[in-house]
Amino acid sequence: MNNRFPKANITLDDIESSWAGLRPLIAGNAASDYNGGDNGKISDDSFNGLIDTVQSYLKKDKTRDDVEKAITNLQGSLSEKELSPSEVSRGSSLEQDDNGLITLAGGKITDYRKMAAGAMELIIKLLAENYDKHYQLINSKTYPVSGGEINPNDIESAFDAYAQMGVTRGLEREDAYYLASFFGSNAPQVYAYVDKVPAVEGMSLAETVMLFYSLDNECVLTPNDYFLRRTNYMLFMRDKMDRLIDPVLNIMQEYFGWSDEEKQNHMDHLQKALYDNDLIALKEHK
């Protein structure tokens, strides 16, 4: 590593300290995957319970339904147990400081949903106790994200229908379909900007409405934010991004009332992000 990147100066202590943090996670999660799966082995209690149920079935003391239920409820040897809000994940912590600050730290990628649920339970409890404000948790597995109110079994038909709406507003078919697939059920609101936005040199109509809609509705605050978070340009459409940089910054300068110095600062931050994104430093060391 040091031969490849001389400035890294990685030492044995660096490696050992990193391994000290990784080792307990690896040892306690052998063969599990990023979706929370395990290695397929059955816990001793589940195995013995299944055998007892089958033996009772052979003696006519249990029914087929009992056997099927035992099979359904088999627990993997590495299956996660139910955890309290203060222990929402193995290796994670959820604490509140004396000044009220809540800190959620640690955990693993397979536990993030549990960690978030534990944090929200604590926040709801504190809001009720301290401010008499009462809320209920929403199941994020079923709650649609913004633009997600589409039949998941017929997505293509929905996109086609939304795209046709965009065509009637004056967009090219390909552009209208892209906006439909990108914004989902919010597409009609995006198309409505066709009659609101000015013509912008260097940008197509679709690119213009996409930017103005994002500024008004998607909390876009910086060029970095727009190109990296709210659109696919920096990560997946890099070849189409360069020509959009100047017009996007010009529009955002006028929209937010930036001075020329503020605009240049945003340009510098964007160029730094592109330098990292394009792996320039790595390529220069070839």
Overview of this protein structure:
The protein is mainly alpha-helical. The chain folds into three domains: 12-72, no CATH class; 85-131, no CATH class; 155-284, Alpha-glycerophosphate oxidase, cap domain (Helicase, Ruva Protein, domain 3). The protein is 53% helix and 3% strand. It contains 13 helices and two strands; from the N terminus they run αααββαααααααααα. It has helices spanning 12-27, 44-58, 64-72, 112-131, 155-168, 173-183, 187-191, 205-217, 223-230, 233-236, 242-256, 260-277, 280-284; strands at 92-96, 102-106. The protein has a two-stranded antiparallel ribbon. α2 (44-58) runs antiparallel to α3. The longest helix is centred in the middle third of the chain and has 20 residues, at 112-131. Residues 23-39 and 76-83 have low confidence and may be disordered.
Task: Briefly characterize the structure.
With 286 residues, the protein is mainly alpha-helical. The protein is 53% helix and 3% strand. α2 runs antiparallel to α3 (64-72).
List low-pLDDT spans: 23-39, 76-83
Supply the CATH class of the largest domain.
Mainly Alpha
- In angstroms, what is the radius of gyration? 27 Å
Say what the CATH topology of the largest domain is: Helicase, Ruva Protein, domain 3
Count of helical stretches: 13
CATH architecture of the largest domain: Orthogonal Bundle
Q: Name the structural class.
A: mainly alpha
Query: Element order, helices and strands?
Result: HHHEEHHHHHHHHHH
Q: Please state roughly what percent of the residues sit in beta strands, choosing from under 5%, 5-15%, 15-25%, 25-35%, 35-45% or over 45%.
A: under 5%
Total E-strand runs: 2
Q: Characterize the largest beta sheet: strand count, sense, and whether it forms a barrel.
A: 2 strands, antiparallel
- Bulk shape: extended
CATH 4th-level superfamily of the largest domain: Alpha-glycerophosphate oxidase, cap domain
